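dude i think i finally got it to work??
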Amino acid sequence: MLRIALAGNANVGKSTFFNQLTGLAQHVGNWPGKTVEKAEGTVRLDGYTVKLLDLPGTYSLSAYSEEELVAREYIAVERPDVVIDIVDATAFERNLYLTIHLIELGAPLVVALNFMDEAAKKGIEIDVKKLSKLLGVPVVPMVAASGKGVKEALVEAVKVATGEVKVKPLKIEYGKEVEDLVKRLEHEVSEKLPKSPYPARWIALKLLEKDEEVQRSVAKESQGEAILTLASLLAEELERLHGESSSVVIAAERYSLIGRITKEVQTIKAQPIITFSDKLDVLTSHRVYGYLVLIGVLAGVLTLVLTVGNYLGSLLEPILNLYLITGLEALMVEAAVLSPVKSIVLGLANGFTAGLVLVIPYIVPFYIALYLLEDAGYLPRAAFLMDSLMHKLGVHGKGFIPLILGYGCNVPACISCKIMETERERFILGFLVPLIPCAARTIVILTLVGKYIGIHIALLLYLFNLALVFAVGRMVNRLLPGEPVGLIMEVPPYRAPKPKVFLAKAAVRIKEFILIALPLLMVGSAVVELLATSGWLTVAEQLLHPPIKALFNLPKETIIPLVFGVLRKELAVAMLAEAAGTMNFIEVLTLKQMVVFTLLTMLYVPCVATIAALLHGYGARRTALIVATNLALGTTVGVAANLLLTVKPL
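look at this
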């Protein structure tokens, strides 16, 4: 089996290339011990089985982000047979920075020049043969969205992997002053670290750039201290000669080389003209109109997700209840199945139904809308607009997207936290998203507070929730080690999204949920059902009522609804009606109790489906911490609301 890795900047069409070749035959997971996503797929070509691995999008192979560390460790340590470097032909010079890094790391390389059609429209011509000759590796022109050049790039990569095509990568040399220092350190490294998986010259460069990860790695070696001492002296000498930090000097040398290559191979044949994409870019990035467009787009997405989700859910629920739940119950009665087995089977069926009715109808339109906006090029602009506000929460502008989606459903919102670049940012959002009142919790808010107290109090609860999310974000940002990262994002030109491309991306994500989160939801439902039929829930009601009454002054009728609310939040209202024996809730709850019960339902614990999504994204330990935080917040807010409304009644 041949192993080929895909590398490239963000938004250069890397995932499109990957999806064109693998379709749904791919597996998405995390790198071992990391929260960085890992996508793998298998392709058959000319008798070869090719394992494709989509590396995280990076702008270099420095140690500025976890993604860059993952990418360079895989290339240097795992040593794929070939790396295909996807380069955006419309931003050729900027993309070449990563290419130079890959060559320095000694990766066997094939360059795929994507967006050649757009480059041609902009009057940009790239001499592919000359570029190939200069870099010493095959270069393939490509339009990944239409599939043009995709197979050719893979064929070329297979030829390099099998030795049919020999490559002689460019030998990168710096100016004399830098080169002399690099060679001195390279010699020292090659003598003292002969078994390192990284090339000695690359280690020397990184030490001169003061790459902390490489410094830590070298320090662990028996002769590492001597190397670090020499590296420090040489870096100081370099800085004394140039009056700049050593990392800036080396980066400037690389850009000088890139400038020379670009001048050799790129020709601009036409003056730039203002296109529709340019006008749209100005409008959607405007400091006033941009926010109006953003509100419109988000409202549209939220409406689409809720409308389609509600419609599909209402369509599926009676069918599944009639043919699955009722059918199973009848079969088990006829077969005289034992009660525990019946509970487990019905619990699994209820979880399956909940997934199909309450989650999948919402995540299907959500992912289609998300990838449509991404392929069109709007998401980077939305992130740019919200960047300043979101930084106060310790995340950059893209973190706004999962939070807004949380108002529809927390499950896709939790899953979409993966769009953040660093583990720290994803973890911060993991605390915030479950606090957002989803559509199911909106039912509770409107059914109790909105109906019996007034819509203005219901809106106050939403405002309070926003303030709470902001406060929690600030607190988590202060407590977590590390610093927020700046928003470094390629802002691509607007492009007409191609249904085949964004639907394929959405299909992969939906498949991922069905295979991973849905089984967890089913198992969770079975456990709750088993507890209910075994009588343990009744025992729980008897045990929990004294503390619930003492803390929140709620009647015993609210215990079971709060327990079932963990399964499905909207069940809280249904179970309250069943426990109270009436739909007229004013008969069992005072106005104060309605507010306290609603706040508890909003905050105390995420539903089972959200917990399943958290488990998938963050693992058991972090999920437990997030759930415990929710429980502590819900309890604190519930107690405070009870005391406050006792002093000042509604």
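The two ends are 70 Å apart (CA to CA).
im so relieved honestly
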